[in-house]
Amino acid sequence: MTAETSQTLDRGLRVLKLLADTDHGLTVTELSTKLGVNRTVVYRLLATLEQHALIRRDLGGRARVGLGVLRLGRQVHPLVREAALPALRSLAEDIGATAHLTLVDGTEALAVAVVEPTWTDYHVAYRAGFRHPLDRGAAGRAILSARQSPSADPGYTLTHGELEAGASGAAAPLVGVTGVEGSVGVVMLMDSVPERVGPRVVEAAREVAEALR
Length: 213
Description:
This is Helix-turn-helix domain-containing protein. This protein is an alpha+beta fold. It is 41% helix and 20% strand. Strand 6 (157-160) and strand 7 (168-173) form a beta hairpin.
């Protein structure tokens, strides 16, 4: 902590991060131990966060992330989309295919930004807001590959016909962006993805990750 920071706010944010990392919630005692503060401090933090709907407590007294966090989260997508657009435009124009940024939304992959090339005669119509299971399509599979090997260079993922007949996809996960789990990719009307596309998608994913850091 420095003179410019608030200890109470810091503790409140740490509570939210701890609760976000568990599916079953935490008790006051567990939070007290993890934060290294007494139970009275934890009670006050939880009461304040609960007042703003950022946490909720179940009948057993375990604290969990509240629905108020969702309202804050809705504002994240526009910021992420804006930061990613330059790299996506460059990717779409370079490859001549529809480029997209996809983020994890629960158990699904959600396209939050899409850029179509301006010079091609035809390309895949892919819209922001499109959802699909994480285990189908290059975008979701790239995210899962990063989960399985978080410390390794995940490279890129190629798929064909998993989301749309006749379409192939290439995607690379975002790496090193705290609080954001996603991928950058392209989708094209081809039976296979040209060799140069995979490395180019990895480069675009790195550019987006740098813009979000």
